[in-house]
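Reply to dn_fold:

You asked what the input looked like. This is it:
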Amino acid sequence: MLIKIRPDQIDIPLASEITPREVFASRRAFIAKMAIGAIAGSGLGLAGAGSAFAQSATARKLAAKLNSSYAVMDKPTAYQDATTYNNYYEFGTDKADPAKTAGTLKTNPWTVSIEGEVKKPFTLDLDALTKLAPLEERIYRLRCVEGWSMVIPWIGYSLSALIKKADPTGNAKYIEFVTLADKKQMPGLSDPILQWPYTEGLRMDEANHPLTLLTLGMYGEVLPNQNGAPVRVVVPWKYGFKSAKSIVKIRFLKEQPKTAWNMYAAQEYGFYSNVNPNVDHPRWSQATERRIGEDGFFARKRKTLMFNGYNDVAGLYTGMDLKKYF
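and this is what came back:
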């Protein structure tokens, strides 16, 4: 399919989107991080170690065994890249802001309430979330709607395990994620770019797909604050903003929820937001992407893959017009 691009749509990133040169020199640091992750995933487990979330900031390992069935073969993004180049507007709109300002986020204690169309609402703390299902390491691609991508070793388990525990009623057609909104901890909330708290949602079959990951860590450690600590979701076939961070409520709903970016600009950010190279954002093409940390800024761009390469989800959308339901 030929995609026409107007001159004003040429993909030239903002200065805030350009990865600093020093970030590209972090391969050795990445290898060291992966070695730690390998030790953490060697079967030592959590038994006798207490809660990973009760440990000090200098001991943040999170044990998990690699699930090779959910590990893409792409070269993983360097740890420093993945933790210093983030979209997390609650901590600022520049890519470097979250790493600088998210230290104010307090992640312990933390609870997530399960509400809505469930047979009995309940609340889980971090220990309960950690023990709900065996933790796995999965290496997923994540693509941003702005046209850049990363490959990250995440730690968590399929969201379906929590859904099973929630025991939703037959009326539950959608699941909504509500994130923390605390002005004392999140300086970005003073800027009314979005309607706070940040909300996202999935259809129930999407939420139950085994790829949908309830995520508690990355690179062998608990999640850094700027990456959505202490609990987030990762939906690898959708654009990154669908993967809600710092979740405090999970609601089961009859009707499609209103989501933050869809409310902000429905013509730009559809409810589904599946990665689709054939559907342009109104202000740029989605046909290609720039892999962060890959041989410098001027490296040849990659072609964007339908569903970000996760083609086994295609059956979820049989019969749907993915240009209309984008």
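Helices lie at 27-40, 79-84, 97-101, 126-131, 160-166, 204-208, 260-264.
Hope that clears it up.
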